[in-house]
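Trying the structure run again after the queue cleared.
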Amino acid sequence: MPGRQLVLVRYSPNHNQNEQWVYNRADIDDAQTVWAQEIPGQDLRPLLDYFRGRTVWLVAVDSHPTKLQPYVPAPSP
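Done. Tokens:
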């Protein structure tokens, strides 16, 4: 896809930890695509703020079939 992307990877609780999807270039700030693992209970706002200007996606790797969709943040309290 054109432009710069941020892909949030969502694993199910019983995901095989030997099957990782999150790998990045050494120069992560200049990478066209940055991959990050979603961690349940952790606020994503600092990550989203740091990579502002990128198109943000969510990939649920353990759904069948694997789903890629635009990321929609939860409403702020």
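The chain has one domain: 5-70. Worth checking whether this holds up in the mutant runs.
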